[in-house]
């Protein structure tokens, strides 16, 4: 075994990250002020909360997907994640910000999101003020789909996510100080149940926050679609960040084509899973041909929305799939980062397609759709500012982790 390397200074995040963080904060504040103006104007307030939910789910997905990968890495090991583990942890530790950003929805957004839409294709009443003739929904609005229930469950979801992130981050911080030791057994104790808790909580959360916009429609595979989307979003973000950091030391020495290739393979895996779960949902609902189930697709495959659906098939699945089949493409970080950025944009389009048809009958030019860009950019700027701040707080490697030492030996051998 080579000599143990435990100099945390040589793994310090490059100073260039400070500039990126400041610029992200500036963009977030600028677009945030613009978003706030639209939120305060009564005529645009409803559209603001539609856009807010899209942006919130997009960036929450990156944070939760990153936490899922942290737990997967602790359960499985492997060098594929060691080079991005601290980036994943920095993304995971943006969850307090996401908890704060959920407060506007609880405080003022519920009436604009869950009051139903009688003008949409197959118009429906929401659970906040159900149609008295709809006995089932009236009962649901008295038991499960209530404001207090919605709020209480959200508190539980965030408490679990924040608790998992806190424990994982705190234990990881111990590996910045001597001695070198293997904490894998301890991490597995929290990661194993943590993965299960994550899967259950995000499944119920997307039912509450997204699927219940139309309380008459349901899908048993809905949660899995979002889980896969979050993991894909997180890996795409990591590919972008590692490409930025690879211009500087120490990432320039740590990141090699094999790790880039591994991250490309994970992107391919989740692109395929997203397509598989999406097609499974379509096939099951199409075969069942039940009125309450097909309403989801009757709103999203007609009146112009079919253009978005076709675009998702082509640009979220078919083209990325063909590119990611190429081994040289997956090993080229410059090519892979372009596709990662594109897929992250397609994740936004996917959320747009899931949420906006609930409120608009047809896909026609609507100035309010500009908010669907402005608000997610505002949230993204704040998210990135906190992410880079978290990233600066620790070395890029947990250098006193035994597996990190093995990774450094592997890196050294690769450069010999």
Mean pLDDT: 91
Radius of gyration: 22 Å
Secondary-structure element order, as H and E? HHHHHEEHHHHHHHHHHHH
Class by helix and strand content?
A: mainly alpha
DSSP helix count?
17
| Beta-strand content estimate | under 5%
- The shape is globular
Main sheet attributes: strand count, strand direction, barrel closure = 2 strands, antiparallel
Number of strands: 2
Low-confidence segments, given as residue ranges, are none
Report what the structure shows:
This protein has 416 residues and is mostly helical. 73% of the residues lie in helices and 1% in strands. It has 17 helices and two strands. It has a two-stranded antiparallel sheet. A hairpin with a 6-residue loop joins β1 and β2. α1 packs antiparallel against α2, α2 packs across α5 and α2 packs across α15. The protein is globular and about 70 Å long. The two termini are 15 Å apart.
